[in-house]
Description:
Helix content is 32%, strand content 30%. It is globular, with a radius of gyration of 19 Å. The longest helix is centred in the C-terminal third of the chain and has 18 residues. The protein has a six-stranded mixed beta sheet with strand order 6-7-8-3-9-10, with helices on both faces. A four-stranded antiparallel beta sheet has the order 2-1-4-5, with helices on one face. Helix 4 runs antiparallel to helix 5 and helix 5 packs parallel to helix 6. It is of the alpha/beta class.
Amino acid sequence: MESAIVVENLSVAYDDNVIIDQLNVTIPKEKITMIIGTNGCGKSTLLKTIARILKPKQGEIKLNGELIRSLAPKEIAQKMAVLPQSPIVPPGLLVHELVSYGRFPYQRLFGGLATCDLDMIEWALSVTGMSEFSQRPVDQLSGGQRQRAWIAMALAQETEILVLDEPTTYLDMAHQLEVLTLLQKLNREQKRTIIIVLHELNNATKFADHIIGLKAGQQVFAGKPLDVITEENLHKLYGIRATLQRDESGTYPICVDFSLDK
């Protein structure tokens, strides 16, 4: 399987607090990869390091085979779009304005948006179902609409890789499904590599092609949901006793009950 991102011997710390220690992770190309694990296990830290928001103490990250540290920020922004947790926008910012920020990596020092930029913005609004909201302030949208607006901005960035840190946090079940279904559609129709940190286990197993379990900055397991989401692995990851069954089609596992390990 071809790799989009390869993490080798990665160590990351906040001051003297080591969060990730000699981690090795591979993200397959053109697949949806979900990263799961307990709070504080290093999921968001891993994404921030991949995005070069954090500088690692040790190790290398390769993007399509190239060392990410050798790439200019603009080069990375043309290959990978990153959406952080609970992003905030200035009051009154219109959806169209937010989405236009995705064209920044392609802007020259002087000059406004070119025709190709405007076309990409309109396409991103259309594919996310946000065209009718383009002149509405982002802070007046529902949670699901707001997430779609941010995804539209990432799409306008015209990258092959989308990285999202907990994009369904604070959303109800219907809006979670709306956002994840959109991301799955983008993956299936456009072959985009999508990496998502997610807390909802059943959503992760339902939408993932590849799933990674992190614990204390280490990879506990990685693979297809049916192969790696087992009662034994969930006990290792979360310290719970889980009851699993397959969905009606038999394509992914569902956690139907769980209890704390006493």
